[in-house]
Amino acid sequence: MTVNFALLGAGRIGKVHARAIAASVDARLVAVSDAFADAAQTVAEAYGCAVCSIDEVETDKSIDAVVVCTPTDTHADLIERFARAGKAVFCEKPIDLDLARVKHCLGVVEETGAVLMVGFNRRFDPHFAAVRAAIDEGRIGPVEMVQITSRDPGPPPIGYIESSGGILRDMTIHDFDMARFLLGEEPDTVFATASVLVDPAIGEAGDFDSVSVILTTASGRQCSISNSRRATYGYDQRIEVLGAEGAVAAENQRPVSIEIADARGFTRPPLHDFFMTRYTEAYAAEIAAFVAAIAGGKPAAPSGEDGLRALALADAALLSVRERRAVKLSEIL
Amino acid sequence: MTVNFALLGAGRIGKVHARAIAASVDARLVAVSDAFADAAQTVAEAYGCAVCSIDEVETDKSIDAVVVCTPTDTHADLIERFARAGKAVFCEKPIDLDLARVKHCLGVVEETGAVLMVGFNRRFDPHFAAVRAAIDEGRIGPVEMVQITSRDPGPPPIGYIESSGGILRDMTIHDFDMARFLLGEEPDTVFATASVLVDPAIGEAGDFDSVSVILTTASGRQCSISNSRRATYGYDQRIEVLGAEGAVAAENQRPVSIEIADARGFTRPPLHDFFMTRYTEAYAAEIAAFVAAIAGGKPAAPSGEDGLRALALADAALLSVRERRAVKLSEIL
Amino acid sequence: MTVNFALLGAGRIGKVHARAIAASVDARLVAVSDAFADAAQTVAEAYGCAVCSIDEVETDKSIDAVVVCTPTDTHADLIERFARAGKAVFCEKPIDLDLARVKHCLGVVEETGAVLMVGFNRRFDPHFAAVRAAIDEGRIGPVEMVQITSRDPGPPPIGYIESSGGILRDMTIHDFDMARFLLGEEPDTVFATASVLVDPAIGEAGDFDSVSVILTTASGRQCSISNSRRATYGYDQRIEVLGAEGAVAAENQRPVSIEIADARGFTRPPLHDFFMTRYTEAYAAEIAAFVAAIAGGKPAAPSGEDGLRALALADAALLSVRERRAVKLSEIL
Amino acid sequence: MTVNFALLGAGRIGKVHARAIAASVDARLVAVSDAFADAAQTVAEAYGCAVCSIDEVETDKSIDAVVVCTPTDTHADLIERFARAGKAVFCEKPIDLDLARVKHCLGVVEETGAVLMVGFNRRFDPHFAAVRAAIDEGRIGPVEMVQITSRDPGPPPIGYIESSGGILRDMTIHDFDMARFLLGEEPDTVFATASVLVDPAIGEAGDFDSVSVILTTASGRQCSISNSRRATYGYDQRIEVLGAEGAVAAENQRPVSIEIADARGFTRPPLHDFFMTRYTEAYAAEIAAFVAAIAGGKPAAPSGEDGLRALALADAALLSVRERRAVKLSEIL
Fold first, then answer.
1. Domain membership flag for residue A70
2. In this structure, what CATH number is given to the domain that contains residue B192?
3. Global pTM?
4. Do C266 and B270 touch (CB under 8 A)?
5. Is residue A299 in a domain?
């Protein structure tokens, strides 16, 4: 079975998905839609598909699935619309920045029975997936402590930050999802601290650039998250998990792994310069999982519920930063 | 100049210091004292020194310095006594488990003008010292985030735990000192969470075995600490520091660094089995620094004040665990 | 410009190239030919191209280039035929197992002015290419010593070995090309030793499975090569180069780079299981370089001459094994 | 039992042994002798021993063992003299640069029944010893191929080179001993190539600075050795062994193992600056093994025979360089 896709939104992340779909033997990109005609046209030419309006995609019976890469404030509307149109929906995170809106949207999806998958790409990274597999295989015993280090090479433009919902909802949300993916138990309490160390303009925009979080579960499992909007050495993405019988870790990835030795020491090149190259394999595996869910007529994971819970953790973290206390997830959700 | 030492307390850590003194070209171990005659005798034979009573050490004019490795509840008394006797004092951490007692003791030391050094050995580890040197040399720019992972191979006997003052004062206290050593600014707020995941008996003794801490400074610098009383792969001691211009990290150490490759993969041996072998070089450098301070007639570091501040952070952390909120150090000190 | 390709030979390595062509934005696979109709059909379906005979490919004006992945004893004939037909030719190594035949073939290519590229894929591995780039940038000063370790996970079937020309012409030939790629000066002398340690059947087939080689250049530069037909831990492919001012090395690659720590130590997974996964990126870059040469109307590298010289080194090595002495390349070429 | 030592020769390597003896609980340095009174005096003061003449050491009944660190051309005479005097003898390599002289010396030692140990310190490095232990435990199956990389940080003074016997007898001899230590079978054939790449003055002195060697055994096991007198990144000392079931490797050691990451990449400090710091643990273990042999009344290893065989391999290698052919050890020994 080949799944026919329409891509909604032909920006940076849209192009990443277009390439992943084109490279898949089980998927075909048949249509692309974007408010900017030029952006849509570029993708259409690169992968030999049609430029369509949203309305045309909605009514085209040959289209099985849509990939939503439009601006965040359109996500929930588009999910609802295409779920109702009987199409499988893959939506970039977040579903919405407002929890109530997310809940409503998920209610609509449930009514329609549509397949919905949320784009937490890191679950599909082969290294992080192998960490999870090692846990599932019992290699380290019951999980006790998770440590996630997640740092961007440099801060985004202030304009992006202003519409991002803040670092906790924009960046840490990926780590909240990874924490849930790895802890083996729902985190029920959040403590977070956040400050502005990288760029005062980020603070002036009402956001932070440096974040530390501790999540805890009912049984006492702990997860630490460390975020920064700046790492001069590249896109820093590491995970380690301590269990009762051992530990497992996924180290950073770099595009070229040579080492040069001279009188100053031994030097390896910087890490990947950002998520497009760091997670190339993850994006391909993510689309493959979505296609497999559609083909199998099964719920996709990460689900809408996963999107909801990660957002709720972000909201709890923001409350914790403001009130300087541990916040129960039950205060939020 | 050769400094003549008496060792007070010939237990496990006492023997470590005895060896470090014996190996130093500028120090000589001339006396050892222990409530258990056999323990003192063993050290005396190994290093060719005399067995003495505490009183004899106090009045022996030839003894320049004492190393206090007796049980914790005797530390403050011995520090005061030997400071008054005009001897330089090296005391294993902690000075005392009670902040008020520590303050009084430091007052006495100040009056006498004695040299006092507190045994935070990790500052002298060549790898951690190199991390600090890299910061001081401006290699990573201003410090922003510190991450300390510190895990014991296995939990101590319950009897030890009962008299230890709890994991925060016994184990995390080393990490609090390292945080102060590396942050470049005093931490002023502590958030800590602690749970019992390793052994319920530890919980029954009123203590915890798994701890996550976030320290913050006035300018927003952050330090995360992760502790466990169990790491099956050995004594896990890592530090990493993110700065505005780069990062520096000290990896784990192992006694033998071979790698065996076969069909199951590439395997390196476990880490050191505990602090005596992991910090061999640190203990030697620590005594050398103490001897240098005595010879130079200068204050030693880490100082009594360093001991006081690390303990205060531990007390603040304990309050944070209980009240599930960020605690200001000013509430404690 | 899009280059239209025909694939000649749809076996294991043929499929690797078919995928690389399909993934390229500048290349299109339009035809596939194979003596086994089923093999051709499989590729045709996977990538949407036609099944053709060799004759049809030869006369099809729309086909710009052929990729020769047929059995070794057909390579030279096909190169000559398609060079005369005005098509660019990419040929898997070796051009032929007989030096005289190779020379004749290269003469024909020269007459026709056709683009010919020989499939020494390792030059295009991003890590090995970065080693060469570091040398070219002067990072290590003039090259002095090269060390190449190249081991297969396990021996091929005896049938393969019997028609392979022997380990020196089949396996070490890649290392001879890498040596030439990295030494910065033509090796002019070869010493080789070879033995049968892996499987006596390989010896009975007249071949070896374990090889050590030293190449030297006129100025005294040295290159060591270590080959085995068996490495239980995976496909072992390493290079290191010592220069007057430093050294550069490319380490092994593995598909998943996690590390599991427990009481037995720290374990990383085995390496790639063979060349198809290890050199995925190299095969893509190789086709891209071929397409660029065609588009630019320029000679391709590695050239036919590179194929000739690597084979001559293999022949010299075989003579060295037999006569237990250093053999001058001028005795062969 | 405490073994009383006299040190003959208080130069660079003599001081290394003096420190190892002083640090041992079972050994005591009681005398030091050197043609230069100042050198002897320095050691005497540092470790509290007497300055003696060679004659005094010979007749002093309280001295159990001598450590010979005098110039090479005195080694054989001193070994014979002290063996006859009933003392255990530890001699730095080589016994002599002339094979016939070595054989005669070993004959004398055999007659006297004296304990003789030759200073191939690398066998006692904990990492290399662990490589051997892994082989002995069957972790990698039967040994097939050994690779030894051994490079000095920089060339010695020309004066040293002139009296060294040449790089093969001075430097590669350590690698010949390691090859024998690890191959599990005597190497019976040597091929070597050598050139002058580092400093023309070394060539003018009749020596080489860059060497590649292949050793083979009767059953076809192979060992590659790569030497250079210059490695800008420090003292490069690596070993790897391929067996039928796996491989084992010992990586380089560095005094400080931090890593600094910035926009240029990830940098670790250079390696040890030379053998005194790289092999500190090995020198201590070497003396401990010698003491244990004396205490147990047993032959010591590496033995005089080991010294003889390593020298014979060096002589065979030199002949191979000259005649550009594989040389049988039986041509030499």
1. yes
2. 3.30.360.10
3. 0.95
4. yes
5. no
